[in-house]
Amino acid sequence: MNHPQNEGLSRRCVLGGAAGLAAGAVAAAAGLPSGDASAASTRTAPDLARWRMQAARVTITRDDWGIPHVVGETDADAVFGMIYAQAEDDFNRIETNYLVSLGRLAEAEGESAIWQDLRQRLFLDPEVLKKDCAKSPAWLRKLMQAWADGLNWYLATHREVHPRVIKRFEPWMVLSFSEGSIGGDIERVPLTRLEAFYGNRAVAMTDEERELLLHKPTGSNGMAIAPGRTRNGHALLLINPHTSLFFRSEQQVTSGEGLNVYGAATWGQFFIYQGFNADAGWMHASSGVDNVDEFAETIVTGADGSRSYRYGNALRPVKTETITLSYRTADGRRGQRSFTTFATHHGPIVRETDGRWIASALMNRPVEALQQNFLRTKTRDYADFVEVAAFKANSSNNTLFADSKGEIAFLMPPFMPLRDDRFDYRKPVDGSDPATDWRGLHSLESLPQAVNPKNGWVFNTNNWPWTAAGADSPKAADYPRYFDQAGENPRGPQAIRLLNARSDFTPQTLIAAAFDPYLTAFARLVPGLIAAWDRLPGGDRRKAKLDGPIGLLRGWDYRWGVDSAATSLAVFWGEELWTSSVQPAKDAGLSVWDHMAGHATDARRLAALEAAAERLTQGFGSWQVPWGEINRFQRIDGAIVQKFDDAKPSIPVPFTSARWGSLASFRTKCRPATERCYGTRGNSFVAVVEFGPRVRAWAVTAGGASGHPGSPHFNDQAERYASGNLRPVYFYPDDLRGHIERSYKPGN
Based on C-alpha coordinates, what's the Rg of the chain? Predict the structure, then answer.
């Protein structure tokens, strides 16, 4: 592997270049249009000269889908062009991601976001990040500087773009968002509990937070297939993250220093998070591993009001800190709120329960995470990949790996605290007992994994690791119980069924498997519903009322489709039964699926079907509604929180939420303002990669590459997305030839 070394740029981590020339002189020196003084004053003549020189070393080529192929002379040049191209496509998403990660969202959205900002700032201190930046390896500092320069050059050359808050990006800022997963570990802290503690008032939990407490990762599939189970004798990889729609940017990034990677980058980050190069590929799927822990602290208040916490036979002082946050007021001015926050050696205090303060412990290794995420993109084989994993800075994702040597692997998050398995870390443990403390990190060798298994395939669907390679999977009995808290989900058996079905996989048959319509959850649940109806006495009113719906489901093959009314009825029934099963399942220590299948009463099953039929009739005039009439993809604006409109164009989507066993996932929300239900998350970027002598790949991005409604690439992939018709990826220059829309230098 190539670990580039470059000379120091540490002062620039904080300063980002000198400032202070008059706005008019800066604009004139740059040959840019003059604008407001406050914006121009952040761009000095030396800055602009440096940015222009770096832009000259970068070429961005847009293909006929609008996908940017960025080429730079060095890795830093490539990073400069990569982030510039992202900003062209959706600067708003970039800035918003950093407002969230820096704890500054309230400066744009008002005081309602103050608790989200406080949660972020409990774990990430900008002053610490500046010091971390200055101490980072020289090669990494150069990339961070190029990242900031690329964004600032974009703003300098696009004066019509007005950032909501961040007028100038500084290199250290990228460390606030160095883990590429959607919803980082910090989001495991419920905001309502945080507000109740630091706001000193009662706040009701949200339904979303209650779901989060079940510790059930909700999306992403990955599969890797060894050459022995493929027709062409080449390893195959399925990349299928389930995220909020339009969450990532599809790009190719190449440099003269050995970088040549294709895939999906989270908006604002300078590494491809899900993707591949000519020799290796990786897919991350949210893990059910338990490596975010809570410690219940016993607080002792002294006569002078000072606070301590009990630790063994001693008392330790509670660390206090004042955090001051800014927010936008209703009249557009700036307000501030200050909070006195608390922490122990376990972590910051995030809530109180049963009279004890709860400290949260999680991974906070931004420099290591940024190194791991970037260097991963230059790995060439499994040995390289494991070398990079030694940074131990991925805490939230399982990984599926494949390479051109034919190696495949399932790996768990390398950040794994070593703990005493006597304690149940799925619940808050006693922080006063030193035996509950983390004792360093597990070695990579001690983690559950499946590397080149005899069966010839590995997969993960956010389920437990104990079926990742069929009979060749790691065994639960060999590991502490904290290695999984997710259990199985309906996509696990579906993946195993498909992977065992053939030994002659091609890229096309793997794509077909990724969009296989069989719904394993309903194949398990619907027979119990039918049996419940069959057991009703003949005179029961439900016998006649539900005869039609039961007949429809009795004849169903458990496969989704746009014309399938049975899919609609099953999904609405399943959602009703799910809602009434969540709390009983949690109380019983079961998955919701297991509780629905084995513990739901006949009365609950039938009541849920009645409710589902009534909802369909009220919303659509009948309980027999084709699924495609309900389940729709619509993209009519570039907002992060979209507005939907039944009167505007939308297209039917055949697949369902992953909850019901569909590998292809599309989660919708039905809103009072619309009759139809529109997708907000699920399949976002899908790719299948074949690692032959020349890598070949096919991909699709939800909607399109651009976040601008006026762009031809705002929605040009929507039909392909809904039908699973992946397009060829232009990885090599000769692939790209004949498919070029334009080539240009950043700023031109």
Answer: 26
Instruction: Please tell me the predicted confidence (pLDDT) of residue 205.
Output: 77
**Band of pLDDT at residue 204, cut at 50, 70 and 90:** confident
Query: How much is the pLDDT for 25?
Result: 41
Side by side, the strands of the sheet bearing 740-744 are: 449-451, 408-411, 397-403, 280-286, 274-276, 260-266, 248-255, 68-72, 58-63, 740-744
- What residue spans of 338-482 are helical by DSSP H? 366-376, 382-389
Among 364, 349, 361, CA closest to 194:
349
Mean pLDDT within 586-609 = 95
Q: What does the block give as tokens for 522? A: 């309903």
Q: Output the pLDDT for position 183.
A: 63
pLDDT band with cut points at 50, 70 and 90 for residue 40: very low
Count other C-beta atoms under 10 Å from residue 211's C-beta: 13
Which tens digits make up the pLDDT trace of 363-416? Answer: 999 999 999 999 999 999 999 999 999 999 999 999 999 999 999 999 999 999
Q: What does the DSSP 8-state code read for residue 559?
A: B
Let me know the angle formed at the C-alpha of 672 by 669 and 676, rounded to the nearest 5 degrees. 55
Distances (CA, A) of 80 to 12, 269, 331, 671: 15, 11, 37, 41
DSSP 8-state code for residue 318 = P
Q: Give the residue-averaged pLDDT of 466-494.
A: 96
- Torsion sign across C-alpha atoms 252, 364, 8, 389: negative
Phi, psi torsion values for 131, nearest 5 degrees: -65, -40
* CB contact at 8 A, 408 and 457: yes
How many Å apart are CA 668 and CA 635, to the nearest integer? Answer: 13
Half-sphere exposure of 623 (CA within 13 A, CB side): 21
504: three-class secondary structure by DSSP: coil
Measured in whole angstroms, how far is the alpha carbon of residue 124 from the centre of its chain? 19
Distance of CA 419 to the CA centre of its chain: 27
Q: Copy the structure tokens of residue 89.
A: 């496509």
In the prediction, which pLDDT does 586 show?
A: 87
Residue 682 to residues 231, 398, 686, 721, Cα–Cα distance (Å):
30, 18, 10, 11
Tokens of 259: 């970088």
| Mean pLDDT over each residue of the chain, to the nearest integer | 93
For the chain, the helix, strand and coil percentages under 3-state DSSP, each to the nearest 5: 40, 20, 40
Q: Give the Cα separation of 179 and 74 in Å (integer).
A: 23
- Tell me the two tokens of residue 688: 């299948």
Per DSSP bridges, beta strands 248-255 and 68-72 are: parallel
What whole-number distance in Å separates Cα of residue 412 and Cα of residue 484?
10
Contact 390, 266 (CB under 8 A): no
pLDDT of residue 30: 43
Q: How far is CA 425 from CA 294, 326, 517, in A?
A: 8, 35, 37
Residue 63, SS3 per DSSP: strand
